[in-house]
Amino acid sequence: MDSDQLENDDQRIGYHQGALETLSKERQELTRILQIVEQLMQMHIGELQDLGVDITEDDVDEDDEQPPEKDEPIEDLLE
User: What's the pTM?
Assistant: First the structure.
């Protein structure tokens, strides 16, 4: 391998490492947001139960969207 190839490989390695670091932080933030949403939902469920409203797991989840049909592979979206 010549020095240009090694430099190119180092750049590619750095790019992918940086991307993984960024995505990892994004995942952590998404997890934090989901935890906040769950806490808020539990608070509202508790208040409704205190008011005598019977809440079941199905009542809370009925508005959730169904998972989307099989999407295109991410590789196709990135092209």
Answer: 0.62
Q: How far is CA 57 from CA 4, 26, 40, 60, 64, in A?
A: 59, 29, 15, 5, 12
36-66 pLDDT per residue, tens: 999 999 999 999 999 999 988 777 776 566 6
Nearest CA-CA partner of 60 in 38, 36, 28: 38
Measured distance CA(57)–CA(66) in Å, rounded: 16
Other C-beta atoms closer than 10 Å to the C-beta of 60 total: 14
Q: How far is CA 41 from CA 45, 47, 50, 60, in A?
A: 6, 10, 14, 9
